[in-house]
Amino acid sequence: MSNLPGIFPQKGGEILPERRFKDGVDYWNIDIDFFENKKVRLIRGEFGIKGVYLYILILNEIYRTGGYYKKWDRDDCLLMSDSSGVAGDCSPELIAEVVRGLVRRSLFDKGVLDRFGVLTSAEIQRRFLRIVGNSRESIPMVQEYFLLEPSSRKDVTRATLSKIVFFSINSKDSTQNLKGEEQNFKVLDKEKNRTEQKRTEEIGGTPAAPAPTHVPSEGKDLGSGFVPPTVEEVAEYVRFRGSCVNPQVWFDYYAARGWMMGRAVMKDWRAAVKASETWERWQKPGSRRDVKTPSDYESGESFV
Question: Of 63, 95, 173, 208, which residue is least crowded by CB atoms under 10 Å?
Fold first, then answer.
């Protein structure tokens, strides 16, 4: 993912090269009780101090490169084995085993790793947003990797949420705008299915079932009795409430996350709509006037 454009400073009438924010950060802080954390102590008990050291190295790579995530496969195990600086044996196999242990202890999110070959966690994302929240005007984040609850002030402050620009790895327009890369999106889903199992095997995990190439079907029970609504149903409910929520944006946001709220499947979509009315993005002049209705959708007009 390339960086968002910055300003164009001028000197003597000459336009200088554009300043850009990098994806990663220059620092990250370790909590004073890091080594007393139960999960970290379990990693040390299972792998020795090498396991904890490797965990810190991986965290450093995440914050240094992607800022809140890192693509991970066997090549990364090889590179870390070569440059870890750990005395004695630190083979790629050991690193892969440590990564599996970190996933078992929920220090990295298993769902995102299995589906996308990416290492991240809710705590990593909270820390990243605390670091960049005051210094960056815009914070692009991959929607599929996002693990926080936007309506929770413990996860994201209002000021920071207003700066987050979500984009999807499956969206042609947003990916081109933010990454600046040429993609063949006609075969993207097929490629993802072919490579996902390979990614899991490369880090030594159990082969996962192919990831879905589309959001859950409307009307399909996702468990616990929850059935995703249609965008028309969301629009009708928004109109009924006179809500400031944009039905299509709300629908796309939760559909891309598999209708998950935090780590659990959504239970009541109407309650979720009401909760999302506090999001900063809706608190703009004219936002209620811009809400579309089912009749707009039926006539062919976009909800966006």
Answer: 173
Contacts of 213 (CB under 8 A, 6+ apart): 189, 190, 192, 193
The position carrying tokens 């090269």 is: 17
Q: What angle do CA 40, 41, 42 make, to 5 degrees?
A: 90
Q: What are phi and psi of 35, to 5 degrees?
A: -80, -10
Q: Do residues 80 and 50 lie in contact, with contact meaning Cβ atoms separated by under 8 Å? A: no
Radius of gyration of the chain (CA): 21
pTM: 0.53
CB contact set of 244 (below 8 Å; sequence gap of 6+): 277, 282, 283, 287, 288, 291
Distance CA 180, CA 22 (A): 14
Q: How many CA atoms lie within 13 A of 199 on its CB side?
A: 21
Which phi and psi angles does 61 have, rounded to 5°?
-65, -40
CB neighbour class for 303 (10 Å; exposed up to 12, middle 13-18, buried from 19) = buried
Question: pLDDT tens digits for the chain (304 residues)?
Answer: 444 443 344 444 444 444 445 689 988 888 899 999 999 999 999 999 999 999 999 999 999 999 999 999 999 988 888 776 665 568 889 999 999 999 999 999 999 999 999 999 999 999 999 999 988 889 999 989 999 988 888 888 888 988 999 888 875 444 333 333 333 333 444 454 555 555 555 555 544 444 443 344 444 555 557 888 998 888 888 888 888 888 888 888 888 888 888 778 888 888 888 888 888 777 655 544 444 444 544 444 443 3
How far is 230 from 289, CA to CA, in rounded Å? 22
How many CA atoms does the CB half-sphere of 176 hold within 13 Å? 7
Q: How buried is residue 199: exposed, middle or buried, by Cβ count under 10 Å (0-12/13-18/19+)? A: buried
